[in-house]
């Protein structure tokens, strides 16, 4: 049997339990034995595996199975959330993807509870839902910038846990991914956006302002990991200085989650011989 | 200069004007000089071109440009609408895709005007919207099966034209694609769904019932093409017995539409030198 490219299953290597955000090596490639080239080659293979499993999930959803996957992506600007959508989610059939990006809440959204807009975007049966940012912004940017008083955001961790438990009980496999780059790597990536006219549109001067709050964000992320990493909705911490690694890691997390659903093709809900006869006649 | 693989631009070769649905050769490959192998090779190249253009559209949308693309897919069962989504739309970044499938209207949808659910799914600026079936079902299945009286569906053609003109004026480039397979080809594809356990889920006995209405559907499609093929929302008729051809053709239609938007990367809306200095300091 050929040696696995992983020394430790990715769900163990990246599990948030015990992680100290401030001490994280964002350049590491936990659990993976290979280098960039090996990682990129493997990603190509695993994208195909993911696509095959996704089709089964979709088929079951179409046949009434309520189960679905929700991938929650969190991370500072430039951490690579968009790249995950493009290169990982982009490998599966768009029909089976419910993608939602949560930016600054609109006026309408602000009139509702912060989970209102989230709940509306929960994936349907058979779908892979992707949240590019999420309800966690309500305990991250909101906490860092004092957008609501501490006793308001302070209650949200438990509320989020209850919300996620309800979704999990209804058939959603929740995979939460926190992507971390170093301050230096972020500077490199932001600089690239200033150097290349095809990247200007990705640059927002406010992203630089946020760099001053880095320690506060680390603290807020630490609280998120400490208080909302649950059995039914675990956090995985992805060192993301190396894009090839973060994409491979999230691909493996999705493959693992789909594998655990133990999906088969839905059985025929009609008499095959009868339908063959009808078809021959018509 | 190398010879183009197309003898006629695809927008001309496939334009619905003058098409007689009942006489259509669904096995043809209008305008394309090559065979299946050449078509499949070309598709790979053109998928990358489409993806590049789509990124520019998305970038402009993020920068406030309201323009977007709407691809409307219509066709009898097995015509290959799903394959277009998977293999054509699947080549672009999922962040830039608004996909909507319109099945039998729900109870809630039925309480509204038939365009209500359609309007809600119109693509946002920068997005490629994909309608898998659409408001045209309201003059196709509805007409064929007398779901509403003729004087009701009869008014819808003009109403749809007005609706589409409004959307076009607001910045939506509308591309409507009618995919046609022959009755024989449909039988082959339905048979395959009965032969392969990984395809059972795609089979619906009702699809066979619909075969008895083939001439009525052809007539209803003819009326759609005759009455709703407009300058601002043209129909293209895709012979779809050959999947490689239909996928290539729709890819070219999208590339053509994106090309006509004459997109450039959005300019920097900040002082680049100033942002470089700020970034060096922080």
Automatic annotation (TrEMBL), chains A, B:
Enzyme Commission code: 2.7.4.-
Domain Polyphosphate kinase-2-related: start-end pairs: 36-258
Alphabetized SUPFAM superfamilies for the sequence: P-loop containing nucleoside triphosphate hydrolases (SSF52540)
Keyword Acyltransferase attached: no
Gene Ontology biological process terms in this record: polyphosphate metabolic process
GO MF annotation: an example: polyphosphate kinase activity
Keyword annotations: Kinase, Transferase
Main EC class the enzyme belongs to: transferase
Official protein name in the record: Polyphosphate:AMP/ADP phosphotransferase
